[in-house]
């Protein structure tokens, strides 16, 4: 009797096991496949990589983080971000960031963003100066030059020379590269462009009267004191000559 009871328990256990396996398999087969990943978010990428707290804060203050996410999800050109670490920001002079206006902070952050996707292999063939989202890439504005030496990628702004440490993230649309220094643009931290040469002064107008010497006109259109003096002297001589002639005629009469 006992042996039959144990046999019944054994068969029951096997049946339950088979039933559970069948149910699990059925549920697994009927579950929908995982959906596509959500939209790219630069802030989450930097948070996952850690050591980018200051850059994340600047992205939030200037709204550049939201701008990057919007452009990524609405453009096929992709984007590239050069991300300075917290250590890179801490190496700046004390008060550097606080001395910038909101617009200047925006320009500083935009200077670290390229509006196209750049893979590691493309660094070898870039044309300088590279145009950033800060805009004008001329000498005294936002020039960014990239050179390579073997596997090393160097960035030059005219103020600092930085190096790409490694690739934090790349998916064919967004590339995020860690850099060891904050990229300081010429427009905010460099010398001002030389002042333009002053325009030449206009030549003074000269007027010449028939039978008279030249008289130089002043700014208010009147003759100069020297020319007036010369004219008065000439009139006095004419008067003296006329008087002498009158005396001679009276003598002969």
Automatic annotation (TrEMBL):
It is found in: Cell membrane. It holds the Pfam family Fasciclin. Residues 193-225 are annotated as: Disordered. GO terms for biological process: plant-type secondary cell wall biogenesis. Residues 1-28 form the signal peptide. It is a lipid-anchor; GPI-anchor. One of its GO terms (cellular component) is side of membrane. Keywords: Cell membrane, Glycoprotein, GPI-anchor, Lipoprotein, Membrane, Proteoglycan, Signal. Gene3D superfamilies: FAS1 domain. Residues 39-183 form the FAS1 domain. InterPro entries: FAS1_dom_sf (IPR036378), FAS1_domain (IPR000782), FLA_A (IPR045003). It comes from the Eukaryota. Residues 216-225 have a biased composition (Polar residues). May be a cell surface adhesion protein. Belongs to the fasciclin-like AGP family. This is FAS1 domain-containing protein. It comes from Lactuca virosa.
């Amino acid at each position: 009797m006992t042996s039959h009871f144990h046999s019944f328990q054994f068969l029951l256990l096997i049946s339950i096991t088979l039933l559970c396996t069948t149910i699990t398999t059925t549920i697994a087969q009927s579950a929908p496949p995982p959906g596509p990943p959500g939209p790219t978010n630069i802030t989450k990428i930097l948070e996952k990589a850690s050591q980018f707290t200051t850059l994340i804060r600047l992205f939030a203050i200037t709204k550049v983080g939201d701008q990057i996410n919007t452009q990524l999800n609405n453009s096929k050109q992709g984007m590239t971000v050069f991300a300075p670490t917290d250590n890179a920001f801490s190496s700046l002079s004390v008060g550097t960031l606080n001395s910038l206006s909101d617009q200047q902070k925006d320009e500083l952050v935009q200077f670290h963003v390229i509006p196209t996707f750049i893979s590691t292999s493309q660094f070898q063939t870039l044309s300088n100066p590279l145009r950033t989202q800060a805009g004008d890439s001329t000498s005294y504005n936002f020039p960014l030059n990239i050179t390579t030496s073997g596997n090393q990628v160097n960035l030059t702004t005219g103020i600092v020379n930085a190096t790409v440490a490694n690739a934090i993230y790349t998916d064919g649309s967004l590339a995020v590269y860690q850099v060891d220094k904050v990229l300081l643009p010429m427009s905010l931290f460099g010398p001002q462009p030389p002042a333009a040469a002053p325009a030449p002064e206009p030549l003074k107008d000269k007027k010449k009267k028939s039978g008279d010497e030249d008289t130089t006109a002043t700014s208010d259109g009147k003759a100069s004191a020297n020319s007036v003096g010369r004219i008065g002297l000439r009139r006095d001589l004419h008067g003296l000559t006329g008087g002498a002639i009158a005396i001679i005629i009276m003598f002969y009469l």
